[in-house]
Predict the structure.
Amino acid sequence: MAQTQKAVGRNGKRTNGRSASSRPSVKTYNNYIGGEWVPSAGGEIFENINPADTRDVVGRFALSTEDDINRAVDAAATAAAHWRRTPAPRRAEILFRVGEILIRNKSQYAAEMTREMGKVLKETGGDVQEAIDCTYFAAGEGRRLHGFTTPAEMPDKFAMCVRQPVGLCGLITPWNFPMAIPSWKLLPALICGNTVVIKPAEDTPLSTVNLVEACAEAGVPAGVVNLVTGYGEAVGAPLVKHKDVRLISFTGSTETGRTVAAGCAERNAIPALEMGGKNVQIVMDDADIDLAIEGAVWGAFGTTGQRCTATSRIVVHKKVYRQFTKKLIERAEGLRIGNGADPKTDVGPVINADAVHKIMGYIEIGEREDGAKLALGGKRLTRGEHARGFFIEPTVFTDVAPEMRIAQEEIFGPVTAVIPADSLDQAVEIANGVRYGLSAAIYTRDVNRAFHAMNEMYTGIFYINSATIGAEVHLPFGGTKATGNGHREAGTQVLDIFTEWKSVYIDYSGRLQRAQIDQAEPQ
Ligand code: ADP
């Protein structure tokens, strides 16, 4: 470690009042630029802290600035022509090797992810698996990347459309899926022939370092993938405004997404945004209640409620309302909160002190709402095994009215709001009555009700008799309204983010044939 490096904790604060140099066993991770692992230009670092135990420093990472972004963008620009001209099936061969490396290192990556992000090992294993699935899916596209042919309107003329890479892509990612979300962006961008600069969330850089290391080991050429770690304002913002970055693919909060979109608009870059959610599970009176409870508990408290698809509202038909809420509380009460590395843990910590502050703030807001009842949880755990981490009890509010803030705003923590409804139509109206449109679910045994709800819900994802969380990589992922700006990640639809269409006309008539001219004979 260079002598000039300083320890800077989360949000720029020194962590635990100790400098990094007093913990020499902690590993330092650099930026990856032009095929080299290099310290930040200013030589500064920040610490990545385990949210289950803040004494545990997971690693030290390059605290980067605009200078580092400029270097990374230059490297990506230099590598662009060669990578774009590499045939897609050859690019795919490298990506298949990335998948093999991820499989080989899966348990190590999962353990490191639990340490830096907090979620339980089964979920971090799932996160790495999602990256593996995404890698193979993207690599498979290397032998497709389909365009199309279509008849031309004139004789002896051929018409087709081909995909071309967008160019240099900036990828900005959040902390809740620290390898899966970077993989959703990185691998499709690469198979399409783009070069990238990726800026992972400051809370979880290690999982992205692992993904980029796998790319380097697999033989992705120098400069094609570049990684710059650091904070949003210092590193994300200069990436958004860099004149050579053609597209920004962003996942994070709706507020930051709006800033990213505005930055892109100023220089006509393309923003592809995935943002917040206020997802809903509808439970009808004919539902399998036990199944609906399992879905609700998993959807609301899986990943400690820190998924953009988390079940933060449950709209329940009045006929089964009492039965449902009683069982939900009994079931959620039994969840074990603790360090995600312990196999007995069901619910890990939340990500950091700011998250504790925000979530506890919403719990207070819910308690003050006239009519809503705090039926379970509501407290931060600060004793014994929970003393050093960011632990909040699974929390259930009942008798919530649809317009209350806890039923409208994204909390991003282990808090769910149960709302009674008289009918399917009212349930759908409540379900649609938020600014977001990511994921919705209905539990019913009536196929007519299920299809009616599917048709009426204005969301990007819809589940029948299954929780609001659990997307698969070969289906498009994204949402309506304040959740997104019309793009979809995953599936083959992601190719429309990372390529642009080129329409090609081939005239083999040997004469000038004019289009956009009225061919009709004058009357
Ligand atoms: P969350 O609230 O989930 O942490 P954010 O939207 O703040 O979500 O962060 C998502 C990603 O966006 C992170 O990598 C973060 O560093 C980055 N980011 C934050 N602010 C900005 C900004 N002004 N410009 C670009 N990226 C930013």
